[in-house]
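Narrative of accomplishments. A recurring question from our advisory board has been how the design workflow behaves on a single, concrete structure rather than in aggregate. To address it, we present the structure tokens for one chain from the evaluation set, followed by the sequence designed for it. No filtering or post-editing was applied between the two.
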């Protein structure tokens, strides 16, 4: 495993060539992920954007972030799962519907080989819009 000192991404081979830039948009972020996970990340991007029609899309804390005056929700491509970061309060609120998913520190883990639960994700995004957003918002 080799970690590029410039962009902090991890690669199998030392000095592996890659698109070495800090992405500035969610589309850029998705474009530099492994090809096989790009479709599911695009799906998630669209699902969230569908609910947050007029939100700003930025990269904040190194993660795709939807912002409307404050950060509402983030997601990130982790090695073994997609992390959705709605904040602790959202996770408490949706506990019963999250029994099938691993959660930790304000994030929900979705496995790459399982379909994304669109209804659940959209409900969480709506809730984050109407309530407090991600824990790391407003910093
Ligand atoms: Zn790099």
């Amino acid at each position: 495993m080799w970690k590029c000192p410039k962009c902090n991404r991890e690669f199998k081979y030392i000095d592996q060539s890659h698109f070495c830039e800090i992405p500035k948009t969610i589309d850029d972020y998705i474009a530099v992920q492994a090809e096989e996970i790009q479709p599911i990340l695009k799906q998630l991007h669209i699902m969230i954007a569908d609910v947050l029609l007029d939100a700003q899309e930025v990269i904040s804390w190194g993660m795709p972030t939807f912002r409307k005056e404050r950060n509402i929700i983030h997601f990130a491509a982790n090695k073994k799962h997609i992390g959705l970061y709605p904040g602790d309060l959202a996770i408490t609120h949706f506990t019963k519907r999250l029994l099938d998913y691993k959660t930790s520190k304000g994030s929900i883990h979705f496995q790459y080989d399982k379909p994304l639960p669109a209804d659940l994700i959209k409900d969480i995004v709506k809730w984050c819009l109407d309530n407090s957003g991600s824990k790391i918002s407003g910093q």
